[in-house]
């Protein structure tokens, strides 16, 4: 490989690793958001599902590892250190295998995941009190934002302890369909209905979430494919540069 090609490969690999470092920071940030967020559907699942908490810690770990790899890759590329380039190539292979394995597991376990989410949500709806608990506040926010009611439909709310045992006709305020005349509009808690039929949305939140995933399926798939292509490109560049470096020269390692 000519000197010009080696230089071009070196700087392309440096640029790739810079992007990889930024990508790792985004993954870590997403993991922190899943762990700390209390204003979305994630918060609803997080308090009752240990799986999601474990997943958020995995995202933080993967993001941190990606940032470290990006940093080491930049150093290995600029100073042409074969051991760092080889380690970087090996880590990329392992990460790519892990990503493919995770995607396959999620695909084949999607029915189990759906059942777990349904169990968690129904548990929240049955014990809902409207007293501004984190999960209740997040669920109210979800229903209000995407205009849905219950998980599969408003009938899920009929199992709520307060609604079932009340002598009044109560319904979840966040389900309130403002286009239907009825009682005053509130953001959360349980409201009293003036008529036997609840003035609520008829669509369940499961359908709304699935519709969102389907409508954004192309974007999600594109991101996944883009990440895989970048990783393969990084593997190729690191291997080419590693082969072009004939001898270790640790004097190139920066001294701090």
UniProtKB/TrEMBL annotation:
Residue ranges that the Swiss-Prot or TrEMBL entry lists as coiled coil: none
InterPro entries named among the record's database cross-references: Tetraspanin/Peripherin, Tetraspanin_animals, Tetraspanin_CS, Tetraspanin_EC2_sf
Domain of life, source organism: Eukaryota
Protein family (similarity comment): Belongs to the tetraspanin (TM4SF) family.
Record protein name field: Tetraspanin
Transmembrane segment boundaries: 12-36, 57-79, 85-108, 213-237
Keyword Transcription regulation belongs to the record: no
Topology relative to the membrane: Multi-pass membrane protein
């Amino acid at each position: 490989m000519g000197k010009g090609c080696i230089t071009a490969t070196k700087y392309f690999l440096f640029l790739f690793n810079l992007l990889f470092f930024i990508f790792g920071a985004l993954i870590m940030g997403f993991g922190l958001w899943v762990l700390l967020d209390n204003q979305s559907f994630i918060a609803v699942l997080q308090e009752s599902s240990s799986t999601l908490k474990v997943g958020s810690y995995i995202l933080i770990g993967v993001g941190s590892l990606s940032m470290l790899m990006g940093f080491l890759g930049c150093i290995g590329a600029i100073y042409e250190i074969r051991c760092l380039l080889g380690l970087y190539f090996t880590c990329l292979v392992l990460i790519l295998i892990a990503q493919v394995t995770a995607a396959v597991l999620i695909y084949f376990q999607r029915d189990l995941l759906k059942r777990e989410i349904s169990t968690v949500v129904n548990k929240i709806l049955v014990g809902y009190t409207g007293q501004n608990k984190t999960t209740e506040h997040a669920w109210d926010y979800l229903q209000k934002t995407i205009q849905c009611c219950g998980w599969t439909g408003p009938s899920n709310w009929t199992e709520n302890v307060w609604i079932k045992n009340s002598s009044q006709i109560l319904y979840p305020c966040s389900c309130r369909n403002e286009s239907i005349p009825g009682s005053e509009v509130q953001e959360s808690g349980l409201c009293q209905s003036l008529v036997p039929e609840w003035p609520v949305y008829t669509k369940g939140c499961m359908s709304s979430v699935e519709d969102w995933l389907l409508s954004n399926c192309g974007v999600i798939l594109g991101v996944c494919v883009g990440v895989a292509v970048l990783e393969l490109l990084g593997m190729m560049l690191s291997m080419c540069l590693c082969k072009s470096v004939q001898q270790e020269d640790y004097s190139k390692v920066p001294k701090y």
